């Protein structure tokens, strides 16, 4: 892959020179290679990827906990079907349902009609998980997926009935997906990013790990440290933060550098 650094706002007084890391695949590479390196695809497609605090489940290690089973039981009476995008009717009624959901969940104007169209009509949408009420046939939720063989599934977005009696419906959709792809022999299910404590619900699955900038980590205490650090206005550069190095990497930068990282050839 080729790596590019897009300059962002700097904080010169604290020696923070910010760059966003982008990557494009080389010939012969597939999107799963970039996912595995900690990148997620851009909104438009699979030609450009961005490095982030990505969360995934190593599905061979997944076994439902008592809490996972409780959430699944709350969805009794709901049926799930995996539908290829080519067979999915992106109807006006569905569009309106998804737009109303987005207005409530994401905020006004965050996902307008044009962006919603892009979500469903880009190469990053290969399949949908559609959830229906078995008694009434009513559709109660949809998850947007990108699948690549059995190497990865990417749970990109979900849209569901916010007025449904099951108040854990969103978590039921995600938990059902984890169970489904684990049973199907998939290697990883990617769940998006985690930059706030509100996103910690993604970590309640056995086998979960996150990309910490150097490697995939299963240490949730490390993740929670990073989330607390997000709230600090005067936070130093992470690798220069002594208690991060001491608590999670035995105190030395050499320990961080020896456990991960991306190789980049200079011109």
- Give me the CATH superfamily of the domain at 55-193: Gcn5-related N-acetyltransferase (GNAT)
The DSSP helix count reads 8
Query: What is the CATH first-level class name of the domain at 55-193?
Result: Alpha Beta
Termini Cα gap = 14 Å
CATH topology of the domain at 55-193: Aminopeptidase
Overall strand count = 12
Low-confidence stretches: none
Helix content: 25-40%
Q: What is the N-to-C succession of helices and strands?
A: EEHEEEHEHHEEEHEEEHHH
> What is the correct CATH architecture of the domain at 55-193?
3-Layer(aba) Sandwich
Neighbour order of strands in the largest sheet: 6-7-8-9-10-5-11-12
Q: What global shape is seen?
A: globular
Q: From the helix content, strand content and strand pairing, which structural class follows?
A: alpha+beta
Oligomeric category: single chain
Q: What is the CA-based Rg, rounded? A: 20 Å
Strand content: 25-35%
Report the sheet with the most strands, covering strand number, pairing sense and barrel closure. Answer: 8 strands, mixed
Provide mean pLDDT, rounded. 91
Description:
There is one protein chain. The chain has 8 helices and 12 strands. The chain is α+β, with helices and mostly antiparallel strands and 267 residues long. It has a domain of 139 residues: 3-Layer(aba) Sandwich (Aminopeptidase). The strands form 2 sheets. The chain has an 8-stranded mixed beta sheet with strand order 6-7-8-9-10-5-11-12. Strand 8 and strand 9 form a beta hairpin. The two termini are 14 Å apart. The model has no long low-confidence stretch (mean pLDDT 91).
């Amino acid at each position: 892959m080729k790596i590019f650094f897009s300059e962002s706002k700097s904080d010169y007084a604290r020696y923070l020179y910010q760059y966003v890391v982008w990557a494009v695949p080389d010939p012969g590479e597939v999107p799963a290679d970039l996912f595995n390196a900690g990148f997620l695809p851009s909104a438009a497609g699979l030609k450009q990827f961005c490095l982030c605090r990505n969360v995934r489940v190593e599905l061979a290690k997944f076994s439902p906990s008592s809490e996972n089973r409780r959430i699944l039981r709350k969805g009794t009476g709901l049926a799930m079907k995996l539908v290829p995008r080519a067979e999915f009717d992106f109807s006006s009624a569905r569009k309106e349902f998804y737009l109303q959901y987005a207005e409530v969940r994401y905020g006004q104007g965050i996902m307008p009609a044009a962006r919603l169209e892009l979500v469903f009509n880009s190469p990053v949408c290969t399949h949908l998980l559609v959830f229906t009420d078995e008694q009434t046939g009513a559709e109660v939720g949809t998850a947007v997926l990108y699948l690549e063989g059995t190497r990865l599934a990417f749970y990109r977005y979900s849209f569901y009935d916010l007025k449904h009696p099951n108040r854990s419906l969103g978590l039921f959709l995600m938990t059902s997906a984890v169970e489904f792809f684990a049973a199907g022999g998939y290697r990883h299910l990617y769940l998006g990013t985690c930059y706030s404590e509100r996103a910690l619900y993604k970590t309640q699955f056995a086998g979960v790990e996150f990309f910490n900038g150097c490697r995939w980590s299963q240490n949730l205490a490390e993740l929670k440290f990073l989330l607390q650090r997000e709230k600090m206005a005067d936070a130093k550069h992470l690798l220069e933060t002594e208690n991060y190095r001491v608590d999670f990497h035995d105190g030395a930068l050499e320990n961080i550098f020896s456990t991960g990282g991306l190789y980049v050839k200079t011109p």
